[in-house]
Amino acid sequence: MKQIWKFPLTVQGVSLDSHGSHDIVMPMGSQILSAGPQFYGLVLWALCDPDMPDTTIKIRVVFTGEPISQTNLIFIQSIQVGEIVYHVFEDLGDDTKKN
Known about the structure:
- The protein is an all-beta fold.
- The protein has one domain (3-91).
- It contains no helices and 9 strands.
- The strands form 3 sheets. The chain has a 4-stranded antiparallel sheet, with no helix packed on it.
- The chain is globular and about 40 Å long.
- The mean pLDDT is 84.
């Protein structure tokens, strides 16, 4: 049976690494539902099947006006907290590599 799970993206409004990206471990096949503020940080909610094996996805959080070099991003949500607006994307990886 599927459940909605919550995944923190920030701690007290600070991105968890300096590049604004965060690796999230969730069950394979999970459906990202939305992202938003909760308490003192940002969170992501996903519909998950706890019986599925884990996989890792990369989430990228950027500010309005911040340069974005990747083009292989899937938009999830824009979140306004006071005067700050965060834009949350799933990062599908480096699409500039050629084989």
